[in-house]
Amino acid sequence: MSDKPEKPLNELLSRTMVDIYVGPDATHWILHEKLLCHHSPFFASIFYSKNKNSSSSKEFGMPDLDDQPFELFVGWLYSRALRYPEEEKDIGPLLDLYLLSEKFEIEKLALDVVETVRAFYHNNETYPGLRRVQYVYANTEEDNAMREMMVGSVARYLTLAERIPQHWERALKKNGQLAVDIIRSIQEWHLEGRSVPDARDGSLERERKENGDIEGHPGGAGFSTKVEKDQEEGDSATSAGVDSVKEEGVKQEVNGD
Question: Does the model's pTM come out above 0.85?
Fold first, then answer.
């Protein structure tokens, strides 16, 4: 994906409009052709011919899309801004918008969504839950910005946690690629050897047993994790898990969404 150089909005509000029909109910959107095609090579290939002249058809339907992420896309198209999510349930539509950015080949929009989602988890001291991570993995390929952000966040959460939550343990056993990506993410931290416990050093093992497992944990003395609720029912690799994980020590939060 690649974006063209920025242009002032007034230069992109052409007289020519296009009709976009979205979703099974064919929600009708009337958008400025030049603005839409400037930002999206996907739409440029539909409405413009190779010599850049407008094609005869000014209508295009996408019945397989949901209305909400497309509405977010239109908002971004005219404002170049995204509404900050107020709560975790707002992350779902943003992830759908991210997938649209890839379909429409708009790199700037994709980066804006990643940064918005990143800021939400950071500002709220939470981590992406299993369900969110699985959704991204199911709909993206390797070397993907949203994947990298989420797996890096989860790598930190699992490293600092006292134990691996059961739904994450089951998911990692089933999804080997996710487990490998977490290890790769940890490797990118470039930790110094002296900061990582060495299982080959018997004296450290004896010291760990004398001081107790928690003090020997990488989180440091007094590190604690409170699991408020583990979702035990159902197949965790497909439906169970959390939308976000709260960092208070590392405190797991299950949302009902």
Answer: no
Which DSSP string corresponds to the chain?
A: --PPPP--HHHH--S-EEEEEETTTTEEEEEEHHHHHHH-HHHHHHHB-TTSPBPS--EEEETTS-HHHHHHHHHHHHHS--PPPSSGGGHHHHHHHHHHHHHTT-HHHHHHHHHHHHHHHHHTTEEE-HHHHHHHHHH--SS-HHHHHHHHHHHHHHHHSSS--HHHHHHHHH-HHHHHHHHHHHHTT---GGGS--TT-HHHHHHHHHH-TTTTSTT-TT----B-----SS-TTTT-S-SEEETTTTEEE----
Query: pLDDT exceeding 70 applies to what percent of the chain?
Result: 73
Q: Which residue type sits at 75?
A: G
Average pLDDT for residues 77-82, to the nearest whole number? 94
